[in-house]
């Protein structure tokens, strides 16, 4: 079982359908439930941001 979250207010860049994007953080994927387009995500850990501010 995977926990997926709908991304409200966002459109798919491929099919332009509103509110069909789902974030599956365990697989690090955003997927459109309408057309099936998917994209990998790279979560920010915060460490890189802190190092860049010094």
In short:
The chain has 54 residues and is of the alpha+beta class.
Care to describe what's here?
The longest helix is centred in the C-terminal third of the chain and has 6 residues, at 47-52. This protein is α+β, with helices and mostly antiparallel strands and 54 residues long. Strands 1-2-3-4 form a four-stranded antiparallel sheet, with no helix packed on it. The protein has one helix and four strands. Helices cover 11% and strands 26% of the residues.
Question: What layout of secondary structure does this protein have?
Answer:
Blueprint: E1 4-6, E2 21-24, E3 29-32, E4 38-40, H1 47-52
Antiparallel strand pairs: 1-2, 2-3, 3-4
Provide the helix percentage. 10-25%
Strand segment count:
4
- Based on CA atoms alone, the radius of gyration comes out at 14 Å
As laid out across the biggest beta sheet, the strand order is: 1-2-3-4
| Element string (H = helix, E = strand) | EEEEH
| Unreliable spans | none
Main β-sheet description? 4 strands, antiparallel
Structural class: alpha+beta
Q: Distance between termini?
A: 41 Å
């Amino acid at each position: 079982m995977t926990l997926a979250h709908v991304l409200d207010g966002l459109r798919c860049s491929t099919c332009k359908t509103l509110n069909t994007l789902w974030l599956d953080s365990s697989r690090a994927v955003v997927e459109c439930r309408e057309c099936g387009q998917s994209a990998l995500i790279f979560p920010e850990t915060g460490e890189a941001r802190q190092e860049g501010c010094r």
